[in-house]
Design brief:
With 216 residues, the chain is mainly α. It is 68% helix and 6% strand. A hairpin with a 5-residue loop joins strand 1 and strand 2.
C-alpha cells in the first residue's frame, strides 16, 4: 500500500479552487457572515468571517487526512491494501462534494440566501456515487458502515455494504428528483437518513443470524 503522488493532483487542485474562491469572496463579505441556512435557504446562524473560513476549510482537510493517511495505521490495513485505490477514489468524490459545498456556501453567505436546490442536487449526486463505491470498500475502521457487527465479521461487512450501496443510490436519486421538483429539502433528508440507518440495523440482524448454530 503506497501513495502515488500523481493521485494527489485532484485534491490539490480542489484546494486551490477553494482558496481562489475564498480570496475572491473574503473582501466582499461583512465581518459577521451567515454560516448556517434553514430549509428555505435563509440564514439562521452567523459567525465571524475568519471563523467562517476556518470552519469551511476544515472538513476538506479532515477528509483528506482521514482517508489518505489513516488507512496506513488501520488495524485492518492488510485488508485495505488490495483496494486502497477504492478508498482514494471514495476520498476524491467526497472532496469534490466538500469543495462544491464550500463555494456554494460562500456564494450563499454573500447573497444572504443559499440555493437549496443546487445543494440538494450536489448531495444527491454524492450519495449516488457513494452508493456505487460502498460495496467495494474493504473492511476497515475509518470509512463505511462501521457498526460493531460489520467490523466483527467480513461476511456482515460485505452484506451490509451491498445493501447500503443500493439504498445510498436510491436516496441520492430521490434527493436529486426532490430538488429538481423544488420539494422541501426535508423529503430528501428523510431519504438520506433512511439510507444511513437501515444498513446499520441490518448489520445487527445479519450478525445475529450467522451466529446461530448451523449458520456460522
Amino acid at each position: 500500500m503506497k501513495l502515488n503522488w500523481k493521485r494527489e493532483i485532484l485534491p490539490a487542485c480542489l484546494f486551490i479552487a477553494m482558496a481562489i474562491a475564498g480570496v475572491y469572496y473574503y473582501p466582499l463579505l461583512p465581518n459577521v457572515v451567515p454560516s448556517h441556512f434553514g430549509f428555505n435557504g435563509e440564514p439562521n446562524g452567523w459567525m465571524t468571517k475568519p471563523h467562517f473560513f476556518i470552519m469551511g476549510l476544515f472538513p476538506f482537510l479532515l477528509v483528506y487526512v482521514l482517508l489518505t493517511f489513516f488507512p496506513f495505521i488501520d488495524p485492518l490495513k492488510r485488508k485495505i491494501a488490495p483496494r486502497f485505490n477504492v478508498v482514494l477514489r471514495l476520498r476524491d468524490v467526497i472532496l469534490v462534494f466538500t469543495a462544491v459545498i464550500f463555494i456554494v456556501t460562500l456564494k450563499g453567505a454573500h447573497d444572504k440566501i443559499l440555493d437549496v436546490n443546487i445543494f440538494g442536487i450536489a448531495l444527491g449526486l454524492l450519495f449516488v456515487v457513494l452508493g456505487n463505491y460502498l460495496p467495494k470498500v474493504p473492511q476497515n475502521w475509518f470509512v463505511g458502515i462501521k457498526s460493531p457487527w460489520a467490523i466483527s465479521s467480513e461476511v456482515v461487512w460485505k452484506k451490509t455494504h451491498i445493501l447500503a450501496g443500493w439504498l445510498f443510490t436510491f436516496a441520492g436519486i430521490a434527493y436529486i428528483l426532490f430538488s429538481c421538483l423544488k420539494f422541501k429539502p426535508l423529503f430528501g433528508l428523510c431519504a438520506i437518513i433512511f439510507a444511513g440507518v437501515v444498513p446499520y440495523l441490518y448489520s445487527y440482524f445479519i450478525y445475529r443470524k450467522i451466529q446461530k448454530p448451523g449458520n456460522a
